[in-house]
Amino acid sequence: MAKSGAPDFFYKEAQRLGYVARSAFKLVQIQKQHKLIKPGSSVLDLGCAPGSWLQVACQSLGPFHNGGSVLGIDHKKVKVPTSHCDSRVKTVAADVMTLPKQQLRDLSPKQKGFSVILSDMCPLVSGITTKDAALSFELGMRALDLAVGKVASVCNSDGDNLDEVKERCDPSGADDGGLLRVGGHLVVKLLESEDAKEINQICKPLFTKSVWLRPKATRPSSREIYLICQGLKSEIKI
């Protein structure tokens, strides 16, 4: 529980409203400002423990008859919260860093991927700024790779011939190893650093819009920030 100030408010509000953690309000704000999850959306939640984002994602789908789905992945076994969730929410215990992409695709609706991918993954903070930032960057790049496939690493290559890069950086083409559908959205939690800025530079040509957000529910002592990428392009212009 937080020591003082606004974080205490979010902790108490989470208890009052039936959320399993105060982190729910981070996605509540993201959803309020950007409306990423809509009725019928298929959502993949990476690093879903303790389950608060599962709750908000399911709420954002609207009534059950609207359809949609939420799949949570975490190395811990996460029980689907009884509050704010229904049968559209499922969880799988697996290591996101080693889980085969095809296995995740097979878990998506009709094996066609997801319309929204959320990554609230964060390393165990050691207090060593550079180390923590590097680990956060690694998790962020994994989320990006799962979302867009090899496009991320290719578009980040400085040595490739520009024409070759243009040809290969196409999520709808032969390099379509990503799980995010064209037009889909990606949210990645990172720790503020130069590496985090690099991920944003990779994402800019891939999405129609990318912005940073530090949710109000973020603890004052935390360096975490969220990169919100909207509208995965069918063709990449570099």
Task: Outline the secondary-structure elements.
Layout: H1 6-17, H2 24-34, E1 42-46, H3 52-60, E2 69-74, E3 89-93, H4 101-106, E4 114-119, H5 129-148, H6 151-155, H7 162-168, E5 180-191, H8 194-203, E6 207-213, E7 224-232
Parallel strand pairs: 1-2, 1-4, 2-3, 4-5
Antiparallel strand pairs: 5-7, 6-7
Helix pairs in contact: 2-3, 5-8
Keywords: Methyltransferase, rRNA processing, S-adenosyl-L-methionine, Transferase
Pfam family, one: FtsJ
GO molecular function, one term: rRNA (uridine-2'-O-)-methyltransferase activity
Using DSSP, what is the number of strands?
7
Uncertain stretches: 158-175
Please state the second-level CATH architecture.
3-Layer(aba) Sandwich
CATH class wording: Alpha Beta
Beta content: 15-25%
Q: How confident is the prediction overall: mean pLDDT?
A: 88
The CATH topology assignment is Rossmann fold
Q: Please identify which CATH superfamily we are dealing with.
A: Vaccinia Virus protein VP39
Strand order, largest beta sheet: 3-2-1-4-5-7-6
Order of helices and strands: HHEHEEHEHHHEHEE
Largest sheet: 7 strands, mixed
Structural class comes to: alpha/beta
Number of domains: 1
The radius of gyration computed from the alpha-carbon positions, rounded to a whole number of angstroms, is 17 Å
Quickly count the helices: 8
What is the helix fraction of residues, given as a range?
25-40%
Shape: globular
Termini Cα gap:
45 Å
Pfam families: FtsJ
InterPro entries: RNA_methyltr_RlmE, RNA_MeTrfase_FtsJ_dom, rRNA-MeTfrase_E, SAM-dependent_MTases_sf
Family: Belongs to the class I-like SAM-binding methyltransferase superfamily. RNA methyltransferase RlmE family.
Domain Ribosomal RNA methyltransferase FtsJ: 19-231
